[in-house]
């Protein structure tokens, strides 16, 4: 990683580059986790929720972007209600927290 990887602005810009490159047609992209809350360290991953058009593929994925681990939560509007209900039932609330 480059030397300014611990600077919060760098991490936000890295998330913006990922969103622009990988999800140019996204309806919304939200950066969450330690980066968004200001608790990021040089080894923090990027937690990113992506809202895509209905008919797209809903999935959760882990990848490496510019040498940083990224956790993606990709969902459509149509599946959000069901997803929120399942998270609430399991008491995990991942998407509600994001």
Q: SSE layout and pairings?
A:
Layout lengths: L7 H15 L5 E5 H5 L8 E7 L6 E7 L2 E9 H14 L3 H4 L1
Parallel strand pairs: 2-4
Antiparallel strand pairs: 1-2, 3-4
How is this structure best described in words?
Helices cover 39% and strands 29% of the residues. The longest helix has 15 residues. The chain has 98 residues and is an alpha+beta fold.
What distinguishing features does this structure have?
alpha+beta, 4-stranded mixed sheet, single chain, globular, 4 strands, 98 residues
- End-to-end separation in angstroms reads 26 Å
> What's the total helix number?
4
**Sequence of secondary-structure elements:** HEHEEEHH
Strand order of the largest sheet: 1-2-4-3
Number of strands: 4
The percentage of residues in β strands lies in 25-35%
What summary fits the major beta sheet?
A: 4 strands, mixed
Radius of gyration from the CA trace? 14 Å
Q: Can you give the helix content as a percent range?
A: 25-40%
> What is the average of the pLDDT values?
85
- Uncertain segments of ≥5 residues (pLDDT<50)? none
How would the global form be characterised? globular
- Secondary-structure-based class equals alpha+beta
